[in-house]
Fold these 2 entries.
Entry 1:
Amino acid sequence: MARQLERGLPHCHNSQVVLEFQSNWLASGARLDVQELRAGYAEDVLKGVTFSVEPRMKVGVVGTTGCGKSSMLLALLRIIEPRGGRIVINGIDTRDIGLATLRTALGLVPQEPMLFTGTLRHNLDPFKAYTDGRIKKAVNCCHLESFVKSLPLGLDHQVSDEGGNLSFGQRQLLCLARMVLRQPALLLLDEATSAIDPATQESVQDTINHAFPTSTMLAVAHRLETIMEFLGHQVMMLL
Ligand SMILES: Nc1ncnc2c1ncn2[C@@H]1O[C@H](COP(=O)(O)OP(=O)(O)O)[C@@H](O)[C@H]1O
Ligand SMILES: [Mg+2]
């Protein structure tokens, strides 16, 4: 990687190489190649997983509970480190990428939606990177408009207890709205709609199908039906 970049930038210093790499490497979408990946905890859970995803492709991941779907997403984020094989994004091994750069490129809606103690606005936009207009659009897009309007303080509503005063489904939708704002190059959804009521499910699936046009997406579900609805019968991968 460094050699390739240096060819293009023959006289620059290392820091400039890093800068170039951070700003341009995902400009035309993220391609993901997982090769013979081994990872796990005391024992390996992923025992030689290989697949590739083209830039901007939406892929469903299905498999029985405990087969390692969440672990695979954690390995992509290097929350668990691969013990063997490679995870390559646009030709670059994720072990050669700084964690901050990697985790800026990737976005996760986790199986257990995580919120911070603070306002709704802070939860949606922790780095104060977006206008209120953009935040409201993301909220509407995730069917949280009436919920936010029902709160006396709206986006300034205080999330207490790391989200304990919100329902699980509301927390999932807020985590999704956070990603709608961020538009990560590689979006990872881990059973992201599991607790959303059936009436809202369909429209949330529509959001997922349309709100991330430039993201490469891996969507995990343990129900095949959910994946089919999510992705309109696109590519499927069984672990
Ligand atoms: N933090 C952990 N420590 C030890 N074992 C774990 C941990 N998390 C998950 N596992 C085990 O790894 C296996 C895969 O889990 P997981 O990736 O959560 O599966 P899935 O998401 O497909 O249901 C399971 O056997 C689970 O018990
Ligand atoms: Mg899981």
Entry 2:
Amino acid sequence: METIVKLIGGLIPDDLLSFLPKEVHPATVYLLRVALNHQNSGYVDAVLDFTWEQLNTGHWFNVPVWLRQVYTVAALIKVKLSLSEMQDEPSEETIMHQNVMEILDMGLLLGAPLAAPAPDLSDLARILSENISKDVDMKPLAVSEIKRQRLLASDISGVHGTPVPTVECPSLESFYAMYFKPLVPVKITGCMSHWPAMERWTDFTYLQAKAGARTVPVELGPHYLHPDWSQKLMTVGTFIKDYVRNPESGKDVGYLAQHPLFDQIPELKDDIRIPDYCCLSSEDKNEEQSEDPDINAWFGPQGTVTPLHYDPKHNLLAQVIGEKRVLLYSPTDSDALYPPKSGLVTNTAQVDPEAPDYESFPLYKEISAMETVLLPGEMLYIPPGWWHHVRALSTSFSVSFWWM
Ligand SMILES: O=C(O)CCC(=O)C(=O)O
């Protein structure tokens, strides 16, 4: 216990207020100063709560970075105070470790990095996680388990499509000329065998050790358009135990969907490889201008569904564990998919290809889909603007790479 307090405490300097951005409100500085001087968590909780409210009002896109930095500083102060409480109450060790882990993860999810030499929350989280995840019983996911519970694409109701073309690990030049430039979807095989994740992630003991104690947002319910859909924060360990391992236990379908897990837990990034194709660009960019792709994790049991939608970026959806059925529609068919004209989800079709309502959406009868089943080790190139509908046929872990 003392080691954790020393290891983490030693990385958090005393002058945390000096990392606050200049835009911070003086009342916030006052509350944080009182919290530090009087070792009083109540004051920092107040700052975390009202900053949380501000961060969750309006579009995330419009939230200023400085406000997120205020959240990070408050999270660090909360961690510092919790560590000194831990010293006074050694009997509560395990609960306190988990509490500190949660504060760090909330800081990583909502906050923003501070200028050096401020401590990096992901370093603190890694050190703590290495010390608290080991004692949970988590068996490997046997390949036979995946096979047993697998659904066949032909069993899915609704429409089916013509096969998406498949190529084996094309050269950059041929991928560019045949698919990237003309914006043609393609399934790419044989390009992921060198990813350590292909082996490591089939072992849930491994995922538990690396990520079990980490808090992540999980989507609950049939899919994000459904009225019963919600989101809940939980640890990866709880998610695996209650939603991935035992999905039949009567709870909602749980999906760790579109989550930047590899930014939150950089150790897991060592298990994947950014595909070379992500260096291609449709715009004239030199090497310095090209950015790393946005990398997201999609992890869940059989039956997760991502409704028919499109994204504005190039996408490689890489399948690590299990199988997914993907339906694709061309951007030229957009009208026949009836996306709402206004609101938050104008990139999502009203048509459900698994239960099409031809009366309400008659133009949908006129168009046809492309279809593929992604197997472990396969990647699907989805060009910008192409509509896609995704259903997991088994327990599944995919990684998407979005880039411009
Ligand atoms: O795998 C999924 O469920 C959806 C993936 C997706 O929509 C994407 O990568 O853009």
